Amino acid sequence: MGGSAVTLNHFPLVVLLFLSAPFVQSFYLPGVAPHDFEKGDELQVKVNKLSSTKTQLPYDYYFLDFCNPNKIVNSAENLGEVLRGDRIENSIYTFKMRTDESCKVACRKTLSAESAKNFKEKIDDDYRVNMILDNLPVAVNRLKKDGSHSYEHGFQIGLKGPGGSKKDAKYYINNHLSFKVMYHKDLETDEARIVGFEVTPISINHEYKTWDEKNPRLVTCNSGTKIVPGSTVPQEVEVNKEIIFTYDVTFEESPIKWASRWDTYLLMNDDQIHWFSIINSLMIVLFLSGMVAMIMMRTLYKDIANYNQLETQDEAQEETGWKLVHGDVFRPPVKSGLLCVYVGTGVQIFGMTLVTMIFALLGFLSPSNRGGLMTAMVLLWVFMGLFAGYSSARLYKMFKGTEWKKNTLKTAFMFPAILFSIFFVLNALIWGEKSSGAVPFGTMFALVFLWFGISVPLVFVGSYLGFKKPAIEDPVKTNKIPRQIPEQAWYMQPAFSTLIGGILPFGAVFIELFFILTSIWLNQFYYIFGFLFIVFVILLITCAEITIVLCYFQLCSEDYHWWWRAYLTAGSSALYLFLYSIFYFMTKLEITKFVSGVLYFGYMLIGSYAFFVLTGTMGFYACFWFVRKIYSSVKID
After folding, report:
1. What is the pTM of this model?
2. How much of the chain is in helix, strand and coil states, percent to nearest 5?
3. Are 316 and 310 spatial neighbours (Cβ–Cβ below 8 Å)?
């Protein structure tokens, strides 16, 4: 199955078939056609952004003084690519299919003070160059100590030599690139498809006798020799120093078929840990869910049977428990309009997440479809506004609200406005760093247009349809005078019970969360969408069950303020998600820059807020169904 390099938000049908390992690795997405190349066909290497896990700030390849073609052409980008900071441009590196070349001079550069400073800063921050050939990203093939191979995305710009202070340290640039292109040949025709793209970066201080611009010849390498890593004098980065960029390319036939060419990129991590930890997590949650369901069913059936057998009013008066609050349980909560807004937004996020995951399962959002995941999420969010308006209006009408237009405006603007404000501040910081990750003004305008031009009208349409329908009837009548709530035990206090409620849903996802965070912040590909979907379903079940249990205990202690409590019980799992992101930041990331830290926590805040709205809504709907069900099951005089 294809995957996607999930970025910034990336949370989170076709059952167990998708979980089998061979299927996950071999299924290729629809809509990407293979290119067949004949011997001698021109191959154009494209350059993508410079990326670093240390700073999380992508830069344009030509931000540094690399060799550039006469005219730099930016390839067509989709919305997702722009939001991710991808800038795919042409380069000076061109090959001829199945024609080996060695020691080709790309260009000669003399470094200015500014260029040398930029190179040193980027080497310090562990920046890597990302290139693409026939839609395959370049990778460095590393040999591990145990003899196995591992792939690394892109290659390092250079290396920092040993030195005392930062001022004295020497910096070396990888100015020679040794490319290896793997191809799979068709046995019947002479055509071949590219199935692998590797590079070995080398630093070499090139020398020459006289420089001929049309046919440059070097002493340090020539067309008949191949440079071996470690056998050369490295090229130092210094002001006014001349650097000659060279490359060579070899072609190698490979048994890998075109449909499986992404396997090496997707199998970079130790998969065993992933599979076992997720299965372990699922087992624990399924066991807990079974226990919860069993307790609920047995206790509830017993309660309902008892209540229905009470014949006299006196017996009913003596009885305690959830039946006593039947006259208040459907009393609208304080700030009922705000609850409607949050529930509507939660439905919107749920719809977006569900459909995105189905697309991902079907292979439409594989890594070869760069920016596909981000584009899908933005567009689905916009179109799901219809369901947000509808669900918000239905609930608002049940609460006997009258200002439906005001409620609809809040649903259309509240969550996106908070998101957009944080995003705008973060984008301004990225602009300040001159990073290519900054969203251009034109794209910002397009996002605002999607919001105002499509999402807002759809919320109004949904709201109009929801408000036209008859109001949801309560199964029992509400008393005119509110009942007094008895003193609650310490463990039934709102703060304590909501915080306890969030632990179980977070427990269902936190192992998968580790892999998602790694894919976002450590530049890995995330592709096991089959498992992610199962974990998503488990999350929903857990949110529903923990909310129902705590809601039941709350009603038994004669506290009928369950509306907001149900939402916050499941939603509090977002607090644990944010705390986990702090732990992940401290233990796994090497971010030192202030701006990068602000970016990380800004994006994690957006993610946690969306998670709060999603889980809160699921918990609320489960509790809403449960309360209606139990009060319609008992006879009330």
Report:
1. 0.85
2. 50, 15, 35
3. yes
Q: What CA–CA distance (Å, rounded) separates 84 from 63?
A: 17
Give dist(CA 546, CA 539) in Å, integer: 11
CA distance to 300, 302, 389, per residue, from 297 (Å): 5, 8, 34
Compute CA 216 distance to the chain's CA centroid, rounded to the nearest angstrom: 47
CA 272 from chain centre, in angstroms, equals 22
- Residue 308 structure tokens: 């229905």
Nearest 5°: the CA angle 450, 453, 455 is: 65
Task: Report the sign of the C-alpha dihedral through residues 554, 558, 561, 563, in that order.
Answer: positive
Q: What is the pLDDT of residues 551-593, one digit of tens each?
A: 988 888 888 889 999 999 999 999 999 999 999 999 989 888 8
Distance CA 471, CA 625 (A): 16
- Could you say which residues of the chain have pLDDT below 70? 1-32, 76-77, 163-167, 224, 230, 267-278, 280-281, 284, 288, 295, 310-320, 635-637
Structure-block tokens of residue 213: 């611009």
Tell which residue, 134, 57, 66, has the closest CA to residue 95. 134
Structure tokens, 212: 């001929």
Q: Give the three-class secondary structure for 472.
A: coil
Alpha-carbon radius of gyration of the chain? 30
User: Residue 364 has what pLDDT?
Assistant: 82
CA nearest 482: which of 316, 624, 636, 327? 327
CA terminus-to-terminus distance, the chain: 59
Residue type, 310: L
Burial class of residue 238 in the structure, from the number of CB atoms within 10 Å of its CB (0-12 exposed, 13-18 middle, 19+ buried): middle
Please give the Cα distance from 512 to 514 (Å, whole number).
Answer: 5
How far is residue 13's CA from residue 234's CA, in Å, rounded to a whole number?
Answer: 53
